[in-house]
């Protein structure tokens, strides 16, 4: 299965600063997805639209602040600062939305 990319226009195109609480929530979600090796849907802020990637988060580059999302066919690196939301999939159901 390729890394799935869905595009849609965001409700507002703003580079809003994340609160510390939101950053901590994303970091916890990232840790849960990596530790449990669950597939996740990662929503990413793009230049003019919101994109989503689906796959397992397999690596974190702490120096460059990027996360690696992969599935059986391919992988991509995503800047952590662009991540808006992480949804973890368990038994083909989205069980949590972490913003």
The count of strands amounts to 7
Q: Output the number of helix runs.
A: 1
Radius of gyration: 13 Å
Instruction: Please trace the helix and strand order, writing H or E for each element.
Output: EHEEEEEE
* Broad shape: globular
Strand coverage percent:
over 45%
Average pLDDT taken over every residue: 80
Q: Pairing-aware structural class of the strands and helices?
A: alpha+beta
User: Which stretches are low in confidence, meaning pLDDT under 50 for 5 or more residues running?
Assistant: 4-15
Give the termini distance in whole angstroms: 26 Å
Give the fraction of residues assigned to helices: 10-25%
What would the keywords be for this entry?
99 residues, 7-stranded antiparallel beta sheet, 1 helix, 7 strands
Written description of the protein model:
The longest helix is centred in the first third of the chain and has 17 residues, at 20-36. The chain is built from 1 helix and 7 strands. The relative contact order is 0.25. With 99 residues, it is α+β, with helices and mostly antiparallel strands. 17% of the residues lie in helices and 48% in strands. Strand 2 and strand 3 form a beta hairpin.
Summarize the structure.
The protein is an alpha+beta fold and 99 residues long. 17% of the residues lie in helices and 48% in strands.
List the helices and strands and how they pair.
Layout (H helix, E strand, L loop, with lengths): L3 E5 L11 H17 L2 E7 L4 E12 L4 E5 L4 E5 L3 E8 L2 E6 L1
